[in-house]
Predict the 3D structure of the following.
Amino acid sequence: MVDSHCHIAGQEFAGDLEDVVARARAAGLEGALTILAADDDLELRQASIVQRLWPEVRFSIGIHPHAAGKFAESPEGAATAVESAIASQPATRAVGEVGLDYHYDFAPRDAQHAVFRAQIALARRRRLPIVIHTREAEDDTFAILAEAQAGEVPVVFHCFTGSTATARRVLDAGYDLSLAGIVTFPRATELKEVAAFVPLDRLLIETDSPYLAPVPHRGKRNEPAHVALVADHVASLRGDTPERIRAATTATFRRIFNP
Ligand SMILES: [Zn+2]
Ligand SMILES: [Zn+2]
């Protein structure tokens, strides 16, 4: 089993990373994709400690839409920052998380668009898969991905929270999607339908640690070991076994990220 999206190089884990990794291994995880923010020097430095404690970890580096405002004057600068972070972290296997967030709108939308486009171009140049963050911005996300020909490389919608119709749109475009602990929340009825519907070879599971802890850890710091709870829940929704969900999502992870 693999946690396909977590932020364990963040400061929330600096104090007890060794224990977090030990619990992940004990839960049966063979690896994780750790997201790094290219504009966060502390996190980029911490990545080498993550790598030393957990050599199977791979990285995805990007400028989050929340930070797009920093590059409003020169969106290309976002791609340059990501590229230089990739150069210093050889275990990088993806560009992300990148995309659009209209829920918070922390950055002006035109800056979000330009920074997103610049990073799609970088991913295509480097032949790296793209990890997408999109919130209340589905139409523009699909439009930019199509215009920028992102489909030349694998594209993953991380922490997918949309309807079955949106999931179908993701799959029809040739993209894959990843479910986080939200799927375990009792009121996430639409998302439970999505979990039962997505073909296993298009499905990933993640924690998005330290955020979004699944039931019964809601409200606490999340960690990669809890991806097992996501796998169990997806299995019960599909009438399948946790073992099959673990194996299938790991195979999907390998196909996409070539870890
Ligand atoms: Zn995200
Ligand atoms: Zn994230």
